[in-house]
Amino acid sequence: MSAGFIEPLEASALALIEQSAMFLAEQFPKNRSTMKIIAKRYNQTTSQHWTQIIEFLKLHYVLSKRTDSQYWFDNVATESIPESLIENLELWQHQYPYHADQVARNPLFPAASYQYVMFGMGFKSSSISKRNNKIIQQKAQQLFKENIQRTQQQAAVLTSNRELLNKVKKFGFAKI
Questions:
Q1: Tens digits of per-residue pLDDT, 47-102?
Q2: DSSP secondary structure string for all residues of the chain
Q3: Is 154 left (phi over 0), alpha (psi -120 to 50) or beta?
Q4: Phi, psi of 6, rounded to the nearest 5 degrees
Q5: Do residues 45 and 23 touch, judged by C-beta distance below 8 A?
């Protein structure tokens, strides 16, 4: 866990462990002659992931409105912000984060992750006109309504958790 834990993004450690395990499972050297090449690629991939984690974490600080200590001022100082994030923030003033904004393969944080953080923290983009915003809100309300209807339909036919547990206790799990 220490290889990838950055407070407050504990998930970064889990993601790095998963990515490392996948890389090793797929690329483990078949013989000693390829070990240096694969090790170099592993290190490049790990470095790329660390860069992504730092950028994604820094996004949280940049969008924060906190000014109650030097810590917050230091973390929004321009010289502490990765150049790639500065460029993307400029781009995102005019369009939503998009998967093509990330030049790296297999990003730890896809464009949707950036959108969740940005819009959850009140980031404003000129790409949303009032007309489009109204259309988006109407579509969202429709989707929420459909979700509530589906939930009610499923709740009407499903047993309660207690009933299910009682059946499992009495009959066990069905064999597959």
A1: 888 888 889 989 999 999 889 999 989 989 999 999 999 999 999 988 888 888 87
A2: -TTT-BTTBHHHHHHHHHHHHHHHHHH--SSGGGHHHHHHHHHHHHHHHHHHHHHHHHHHHHH----SSHHHHHHH-GGGS-HHHHHHHHHHTTS---GGG--SSS-SS-HHHHHHHHHHTT---TT--HHHHHHHHHHHHHHHHHHHHHHHHHHHHSPPHHHHHHHHHHH-PPP-
A3: alpha
A4: -125, 120
A5: yes
